[in-house]
Amino acid sequence: MIKSILAAAALAAVSTVAVAQTPPTPGSDHSGHAAVPAAAAKPTINSSIKDLLAYPATAAILEKHLPGVSQHPALPQFQDMTLADVAPLSGGAISATVITAIDADIKALPAG
Description:
- By secondary structure, this protein is an all-alpha fold.
- The chain is 49% helix and 0% strand.
- It has 6 helices and no strands.
- It has helices spanning 2-20, 49-54, 56-65, 75-78, 83-86, 96-107.
- The longest helix has 19 residues, at 2-20.
- It is globular, with a radius of gyration of 22 Å.
- Residues 1-22 and 33-38 have low confidence and may be disordered.
């Protein structure tokens, strides 16, 4: 019993040392976790729908061109997709023209 406890403790210690010695990957903090930007950048037309809805200015743009999108019952199924990803599944509601108009409105937003 004690041998198995000591073996488990030794294995845990070795695992901890191995993790502690793993060099950070580019774009991460020194703990190996992804670096978190100080301020989230303004989403673009290539951002997920969830990210576009999380930023008030782009959420308003989506609602202007796609009324009710933020309350759509299927939002959990498509929120991690981009508008271009959802377009073929939208039955024509998200056309290339709509995406172009949304993109123009996003680009017209002030920086920052």
